[in-house]
From TrEMBL:
Protein name (record): NCS2 family permease
UniProt superkingdom: Bacteria
PANTHER family given in the database record: XANTHINE/URACIL PERMEASE C887.17-RELATED, XANTHINE_URACIL PERMEASE C887.17-RELATED
Compartments in which it is found: Cell membrane
Topology versus the membrane: Multi-pass membrane protein
Ranges that cross the membrane: 17-37, 43-65, 72-91, 97-117, 129-146, 158-184, 191-210, 251-273, 293-315, 327-344, 383-404, 424-440
Keywords from the UniProt entry: Cell membrane, Membrane, Transmembrane, Transmembrane helix, Transport
Broad class of the protein's primary localization: membrane
Amino acid sequence: MIQTVSDKKVTSRRTEILAGVSTFLATMYIIVVNPAILSQAGLPFSGVLTATVLLSFFCSLMMGLYARNPIVVAPGMGLNAFFTFSAVKGMGIAPTVALGAVFWAGILFLILSLANIRTAIVRAIPKPLRYAISAGIGLFITLIGFENARFIVANPATLVSIASLSDPIILTFILGLLLTAVLVARRITGAIIAGITLTTLAAVPIGRLWGDASAVTFGQKTLVNFQGLFAAPDFSLIGRLDLLGALQWSLWPVIFAFAFTDLFDSLSTFVGVAEAADLYDETGEPRNVKQSLLTDAVATTLAGFLGTSPGTAYIESAVGIEQGGRTGLTAIVAGLLFLPFLFLSPLLSVIPAIATAPALVLVGSFMMRPVTKINWGELDEAIPAFLALVLIPFSYSITQGIIWGFLSWTVVKVAVGKFREVPVGLWVVDVFCVVSLVAGH
């Protein structure tokens, strides 16, 4: 049996292993989706896939062994889109130069982490905003789950709408969601893994009978179709970054954009996951936050060297935490499960997106619990918390939610004469927020 430091709950190695498997199943989509996005920037798909697996393996192990937190680290969604569509395609930066910018952003992270600046920033976040960020991330995870299942789709008239219930994919997702919800509600051990397995099995006939590739190929869209069982790793991108080219004065905004976007993503993930799972130390702060943030910094630096977009802590780690994961063993197990896909990446096609979607939706509901701790009667706290909560899913960006939550907290508190309720560290965060907004535009 293992006893955690923060919540004094007793867990077991079996529980931690199951949690690690659950987290891996919820995050492994990045192995295919990340290279699919970065390949549009001109990087070889196979090279990015290898870099993605190596980064996820090494940095998740570091998170488990060094930071002792049950959080997976992998190339960040959103960050890979910024790399491809803003830096490379939008600004015309060469892919190798963009990798160099990722590396220097990681160095900036390391400096901030070693100087305890990032830790101080975490401690400066007011608790109502922590609660709101956790709930906002939960809504964001839920939206991702609905989107992956194609249950929520784009609509030119209403922005979004529910897809037709006549679609066999949608019916399979609903079946998987209800099955998983029942298993979770009955507190069945390994409920989330069982739900993913059952939904995968239910999805097989769709591909057979209706010919829908998305039911038998991993991913929201059929981005790539592997053949066979084995694929050799491609190490061609390792060390291909252009360090000197990335130091041009015109590229500093790109480095800052990578740095501050990853900063807010990781901060919000650590705070949100800690709040949802009660992973706090004796002082009431997120457990081992300095070590966790340092791991995140190493992930970004290593990403540039390996040949992928910045690495960051993954909000989908909440899946394993809800499964009972409380220690670094969860991250270690998840990290180890990435490694075989250096050679077995075709096996990812076995589990479709609609199989992991129910787990993501339900995890979102679990992460709504902290909302009850917000004092909704104190409007100078409730309004900033509300903005942070809703803007995370509405803007499809954790970064935007946390930025506007921080800035609105400061403005409202000062305006109502509660200047002293704005911590000094939060003023530093506000500066980063403004810089991030400017650099992002």
